[in-house]
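Q: What residues go here?
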């Protein structure tokens, strides 16, 4: 069973995303265990605050090192962790490749940021990996932690019913996924592409590949460049 410990400032944000659908099913099946810890439970401050003013007069509050150290120390006494991840907009871009790698690990911690950030000494001495989920700033790191947890957990073998379905996701081969259709065959005058009704599996696969390539070129020229450079097994 893979274990994910999430250290949160506002744990309530995680209630919805992690207790529903596929991530909940993974927990029910005993494939993943997700444990949320409230940073506020580890503060020694009488007002239970986990943040303080920044040195140097920078505007905004900073998460203190004390409570983070305490919760990490407690968890690390209980088991070894493969990665201690801090989610932050100035981290390395999180992508499908990283999701694949994380899904093979046993124990990971995700530390959520808030306010102006966390004391740099936490990042220098305690964190092993810093990840950003995109070039925009969220007010709560918990949202980024939920995104990463979802992307990782669905890849653990046995979580998705049809095991092959994760293999045909967008990004697994540097291509975006092709379009999909379901009944009815005609809605108003909008038709399902005839090739999908042809029963010719070879032609269908060819069509899907062409659609994927077109979509990748149009929406993600950066990904398409990688495909053209020959790192994509589908097209080489
Ligand atoms: N916290 C705030 N914004 C974030 C982002 N884009 N990625 C990861 N963590 C964040």
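A:
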């Amino acid at each position: 069973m893979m274990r994910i410990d999430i250290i949160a400032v506002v744990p309530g944000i995680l209630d919805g995303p992690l207790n529903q659908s596929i991530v909940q099913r993974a927990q029910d099946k005993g494939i993943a265990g997700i444990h949320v810890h409230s940073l506020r439970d580890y503060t020694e401050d009488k007002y239970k605050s986990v943040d303080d003013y920044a040195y140097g007069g920078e505007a905004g509050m900073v998460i203190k090192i004390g409570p983070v150290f305490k919760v990490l120390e407690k968890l690390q006494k209980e088991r070894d962790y493969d990665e201690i991840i801090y989610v932050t907009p100035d981290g390395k871009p999180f992508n499908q490749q990283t999701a694949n790698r994380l899904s093979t690990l046993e124990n990971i911690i995700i530390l959520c940021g808030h306010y102006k950030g966390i004391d740099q000494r936490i990042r220098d001495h305690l964190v092993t990996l810093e990840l950003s989920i995109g070039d925009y700033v969220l007010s709560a790191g918990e949202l980024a932690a939920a995104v990463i947890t979802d992307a990782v957990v669905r890849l653990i073998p046995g979580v998705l019913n049809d095991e092959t379905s994760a293999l045909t996701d967008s990004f697994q081969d540097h291509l975006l996924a092709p379009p999909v259709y379901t009944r009815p065959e005609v809605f108003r005058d909008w038709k399902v592409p005839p090739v999908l009704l042809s029963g010719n599996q070879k032609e269908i696969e060819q069509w899907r590949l062409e659609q994927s390539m077109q979509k990748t070129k149009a929406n993600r020229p950066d990904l398409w460049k990688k495909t053209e450079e020959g790192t994509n097994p589908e097209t080489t």
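A: Context that may help when evaluating the design: The chain has a mean pLDDT of 93. The domain at 168-229 is CATH 1.10.1270.20 (Trp Operon Repressor; Chain A).
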